[in-house]
Structure formats: C-alpha cells, structure tokens
Specification:
Elements: E1 2-3, H1 5-10, E2 17-21, E3 24-30, H2 37-41, E4 47-52, E5 56-60, H3 62-67, H4 74-116, H5 121-162, H6 164-181, H7 199-214
Parallel strand pairs: 3-5
Antiparallel strand pairs: 1-4, 2-3, 4-5
Helix pairs in contact: 4-5, 5-6
Length: about 220
C-alpha cells in the first residue's frame, strides 16, 4: 500500500536508523532535517509513516523520538506494519464491494435512460449522482469503522507486548512531549515604576515654580 508517497520520495537523506521487518525495510528520518517540520509538527503530528508500496520510511520529530523511542522498537513496529497492511486490504476489499457495483449500475441505468427515456435523462442522471454520493458516504463509514477496530486491536497487542506499566508511561511521555513542544513562556508582567512623590507634592512643586516666575 502506498502511503504518503510524495513524502516518501522526498526522504532521500541518510536515515538515523534502519530496521528490516518481515522482509520490509523501515527507515527512520528526523523531521527536523526536512522541510516537513512545520507542516506536520505544528498540527501535533510528530510521526508520519510513508511507503512506496513495499518499504517504509518513518518521518519523526527528534524530541518526540527521544521520548517514545521504545514505541518504535522492531517488535512494536512489526505489530504496526501488520495494522497498516490490514488497513490496506480492508480499503481494497470495501472498494470492490462499493465502487465496481456502483459504477456498473450507473452505466446500465445511464444506457437505459439514453435509449428508452431520453426526455427524463437529466433527472435520472441527477438521481444517479445522488446515489453515488450516498454510496461513497456509506463506504467511508464502513472503512473508518473497520480501521478503528483494527487500530484498537493493534494497540492492544502493543500494550500486551510492552506491559501495562510501560505502555501507560509512554502515553504519559507523549503528553509531556506535547506540552514541552508547545510550551509558551508567559509574558513577564511590566511592574509599575514606584515613586515617592504624591499628587499633592507634585501640585505644590508646580505652584512653587509659578511663584518663582512671577517674582
């Protein structure tokens, strides 16, 4: 499955780590050394998986990797690659269920309308377009639900491998990194300049200056 192929093709530098998992090469590249840092990190996306359909390159923010290094060890990545492969298979399968039948139905109905109901052609085509839109919406819901289920299953396997304590600690580390990355220093309040001069004293001083001028 190709995944963020445009990013994959631009990650041509030397990876800081390389793993071979189930015959697939997984390279790790620091996001900080690429032009993608602002594009992804500013939105809270600190790790991006990319693929050319065979091998993988992971684009990851440097400090994020430091906090969650254990989450990217080969055994965990093997689980995650399995998830990505399943998602690809699900997407292809659901597309076969919906896209091909929908296109076939569209072509058949359009042909029948052209031959037998030319005066109602526009209305029939509009109805078909609505049908296609509804079909796509339903297809997206089916895919998203299956992906969520597989994601939760993958997280469960990762938790089982790491253990509850380490897994929960990594979640906390993820939150700490997020807070650190987006930490903004509070503006230092400007303290008012202290003065021992009261308004009455200022007024008396002004009056004295006027008297001096009049003399």
């Amino acid at each position: 499955m190709k995944l963020n192929a445009r990013v994959y093709n631009q990650l041509t530098g030397e990876p800081f780590d390389t793993q071979v998992i189930d015959g697939k090469i997984v390279e790790f590249h620091y996001m900080n050394d690429t032009p993608f840092l602002f594009q992804y990190a500013s939105k809270g996306r600190f790790a991006i998986w990319t693929s050319d359909g065979k091998n993988y390159r992971v684009l990851i923010e440097k400090m994020y990797y430091g906090y969650l290094k254990d989450f990217y060890q080969p055994e965990v990545n093997a689980i995650w690659l399995g998830f990505l492969e399943k998602v690809s298979a699900i997407s292809k399968k659901v597309n076969m269920w919906f896209i091909i039948p929908t296109l076939a139905l569209y072509a058949i109905v359009a042909f029948i309308a052209t031959v037998f109901f030319p005066e109602q052609m526009l209305s029939i085509l509009l109805g078909l377009i609505v049908l296609v839109v509804i079909s796509n919406m339903f297809q997206s819901r089916v895919v998203n639900k299956r992906v969520r289920d597989e994601n939760l299953a993958a997280q469960g396997r990762i938790r089982e491998f790491l253990g509850n304590e380490e897994f929960d600690q990594l979640i906390k580390s993820q939150e700490v990194h997020y807070q650190e990355y987006f930490k903004f220093e509070e503006e230092t309040p400007v303290e008012p300049v202290e003065t021992t001069e009261t308004p009455a004293e200022k007024l008396e001083e002004n009056n004295d200056q006027k008297d001096d001028k009049n003399e």
